[in-house]
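Page 47, continued from p. 46.
Same chain as before, 131 aa.
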Amino acid sequence: MAQILDPLPPEQSGKILCCYINATSKIQVARISNIPNWYFERVVFPGQRLVFEAPRKGQVEIHTGMMASAILSDKIPCDRLMLDEPSVYEFDTDSSDEKDLINTRSIVQQINTKIGDSTKPLQIVGLASVD
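Result:
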């Protein structure tokens, strides 16, 4: 669940769950400034994943930290950061009649092995001497 410190204004409908990952080695600040009556700003450390709720029309500004300042390095529409939320039925384990949607594929594949000597002697390639 998203951590909501600054809830959206009541007039904002159509909120979506978003995720941004800082794939850089620098500290970044994610800021949404195009929504009136709402303040959203979070520090995102290198490799950190930020999950948040935002209006569909929101736009995330990414400010990358430099020595004593920050540079606006990207603007991303929130609908491009939207996560697909699983439906309630995907995690329903009470019904045995329904298909298991989570475990539909085998995670471990069978390893093909054959009995016998699988090692080959190392071949040494000689260099032709130049006389």
